[in-house]
């Protein structure tokens, strides 16, 4: 057994012993009448007690159904509440391997498929979303065990990893390929480093920090935040809304002690625009030691304004498979916007190639700038599970592209494939969407289909019709496209779907720009139709 391999559970136990009465979480609190009344503090000892109570319950329930320790148990919940965290941590504390399934995945067949693919023996689900779940395995609704007296049930011995390859939890890729997300098992080596990798966020800060959680515990960003913060004895604050409104941010900072804000870049841009005309919001952002953003590059105009107005912006570049890959330099110097690898990792930056990156204009590259793909070697502690690595090299090829204008300092330049990142940093496979449209509509309706939506809540589709009609708003064409593609999109994450004809733009035949090889440069098209896209999403 390696004593150096930390897990989310050993980190919680350590802080509960060292800092039992310190705040572990601050959670939204409502009266019985449903009136919001601020944030309630959960101490480390209370969180540990709630997790252990849940562990007693789930060990008893699952063992009765012949679900043995170290079996995989699916957890299909929203993942944004304290109760969800207690359930996830509690099932792990009971000795099982939680497989986290986001409620953004709504198609029952797909949920069952990913459970089977991972080898799950049972699934725990949110009964407020679905009263019953009919699958060919044990299916149990979430139970709030916090006030239940369960001391008569034994508490299983705390499982700790004995090998670096032991599986701690299972997540899924944030986008799907033809309606099926990839399984992302988290090894004990990966989790150990993920917990450690959060430390640079707090470097130079004194005392306990209060950190805003970033989304759902069923996605890796919020889970890593909770794991890493609790290992260091810091407090995680759950917002009432996702993203938090300007009024909520002001209350969190000024009344409840928020010190580190995490927002996806799209949400931060909106917050910064509000701050231009809201002095109180601006002051709230200014007094925080750090404002972190991630998912997409922050709009340069917003970043420049924020730094000029005293905000300490920092970028956190991450993915489900690798975790925190790069950190922004931060500060107010000329290098503030650059990214750097964190300590303890081993990366290779290899010259990128491929038709999808052949157009420099679409990548905002400088003169003579070389594009580099980040590759995580197998020996790096944050290299993901072997099932996700390159079959020949054994390394993980991220597909993320960077420029290196200064040695050791990087700028993000998008991806070398057909995936785009949406508003909440989750990914969308544009190629599979385009392929499905052409398969179903290419013979009689459209000649070209391009899926767009970087930084948007959901994708949009640009098509060139096979037959043009003067004065036609093409509403019938749009309706028919949506009708045909609906079964395909129902299987996808909610952020990947095109379900409304409003999100289809019909372009004149031959009007879309082409590369020398005949492809459509997605980023160029996105810029060309930016105003039209803005209008569509403003009406949503």
UniProtKB/TrEMBL annotation:
Gene Ontology biological process terms in this record: fatty acid metabolic process
Record organism: Clonostachys solani
Gene3D superfamilies noted in UniProt: N-terminal domain of ligase-like
Descriptive protein name: AMP-dependent synthetase/ligase domain-containing protein
Family: Belongs to the ATP-dependent AMP-binding enzyme family.
UniProt lineage: Eukaryota, Fungi, Dikarya, Ascomycota, Pezizomycotina
Domain called AMP-dependent synthetase/ligase: residue spans: 37-332
Molecular functions per Gene Ontology: medium-chain fatty acid-CoA ligase activity
């Amino acid at each position: 057994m390696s004593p150096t391999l930390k897990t989310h559970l050993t980190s919680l136990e350590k802080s509960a012993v060292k800092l039992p009465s310190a705040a572990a979480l601050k959670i939204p609190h409502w009266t019985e009448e449903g009136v919001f009344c601020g944030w309630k503090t959960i101490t480390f000892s209370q969180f540990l007690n709630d997790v252990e109570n849940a562990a007693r319950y789930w060990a008893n329930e699952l063992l009765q159904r012949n679900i043995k320790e170290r079996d995989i148990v699916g957890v299909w919940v929203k993942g944004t509440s304290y109760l969800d965290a207690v359930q996830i941590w509690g099932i792990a504390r009971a000795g099982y391997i939680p497989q986290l399934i986001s409620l953004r995945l709504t198609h029952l067949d797909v949920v069952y498929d990913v459970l089977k693919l991972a080898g799950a023996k049972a699934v725990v689900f949110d009964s407020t979303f679905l009263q019953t779940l009919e699958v060919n395995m044990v299916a149990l609704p979430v139970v709030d065990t916090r006030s239940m007296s369960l001391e008569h049930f034994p508490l299983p011995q705390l499982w700790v990893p004995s090998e670096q390859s032991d599986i701690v939890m299972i997540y899924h890729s944030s986008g799907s390929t033809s309606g099926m997300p990839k399984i992302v098992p988290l090894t004990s080596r990966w989790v150990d480093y993920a917990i450690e990798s959060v430390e640079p966020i707090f470097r130079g800060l004194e005392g306990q920090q209060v950190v805003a959680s970033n989304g759902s515990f069923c996605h890796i960003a919020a889970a890593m935040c909770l794991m890493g913060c609790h290992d260091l004895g810091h407090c995680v604050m759950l917002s009432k809304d996702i993203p938090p409104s300007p009024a909520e941010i002001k209350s969190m900072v000024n009344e409840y002690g928020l010190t580190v804000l995490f927002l996806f870049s799209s949400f931060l841009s909106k917050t910064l625009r509000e701050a231009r005309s809201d002095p109180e919001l601006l002051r709230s952002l200014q007094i925080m030691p750090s404002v972190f953003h991630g998912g997409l590059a922050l709009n340069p105009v917003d970043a420049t304004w924020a730094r000029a107005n005293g905000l300490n912006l920092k970028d956190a570049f991450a993915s489900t498979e690798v975790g925190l890959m790069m950190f922004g330099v931060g500060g107010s110097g000329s290098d503030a916007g650059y990214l750097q690898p964190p300590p303890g990792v081993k990366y290779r930056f290899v010259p990128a190639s491929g038709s999808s990156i052949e157009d420099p204009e679409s990548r905002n590259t400088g003169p003579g700038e070389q594009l580099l793909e980040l590759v995580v070697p197998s020996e790096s502690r944050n290299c993901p599970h072997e099932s996700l690595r390159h079959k020949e090299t054994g390394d993980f090829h991220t597909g993320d592209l960077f420029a290196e204008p200064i040695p050791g300092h990087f700028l993000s330049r998008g991806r070398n494939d057909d995936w785009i990142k949406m508003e909440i940093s989750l990914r969308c496979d544009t190629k599979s969407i385009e392929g499905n449209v052409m398969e179903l509509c290419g013979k009689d309706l459209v000649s070209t289909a391009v899926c767009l939506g970087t930084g948007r809540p959901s994708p949009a589709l640009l098509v060139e019709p096979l037959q043009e009609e003067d004065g036609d708003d093409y509403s019938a064409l749009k309706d028919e496209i949506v009708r045909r593609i609906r079964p395909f999109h129902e299987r996808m994450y909610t952020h990947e779907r095109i379900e409304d004809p409003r999100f289809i733009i019909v372009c004149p035949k031959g009007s879309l720009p082409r590369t020398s090889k005949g492809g459509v440069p997605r980023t160029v098209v996105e810029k060309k139709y930016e105003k039209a896209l803005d209008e569509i999403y403003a009406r949503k």
